[in-house]
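Shift notes (night). Ran Nitrile hydratase accessory protein while the centrifuge was going.
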Amino acid sequence: MRNAAIVQATGALPDLPRDEDGPVFREPWEAQAFAMALSLYDRGLFSWKEWAAALADEIKLAQAGGDPDTGTTYYRHWLATLEKMVAAKGVTTAATLHRYRDAWDRAADRTPHGKPIELKPEDFPPNT
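Came back to this:
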């Protein structure tokens, strides 16, 4: 199913960075964001048509805000679309996404370069 989803994704998303072998990624997090979207698609959270429309809307919004549209920000738009879609579908909330993003930022700040980032309870401030 994964290969079929990748083929469908690359066909439905003409701006997806790719080469003759499929999608290409500059950073590991880009591949992880791609894989998360594939997994949610596989689970039926959305169709590729729905995903493509939401991603196009996110890119247009970014361009209206000054995004240079050089291709270097494509997966930032992908991730923003993913976050918005899971919140809209009720998988999580925007507040929970922000809480985890902030925790990852704290964990990354204390992690030496080249070491794996590990979340710890102290990365999450108490809910107020």
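Strands lie at 18-19, 22-23. The first strand starts at residue 18 and ends at 19.
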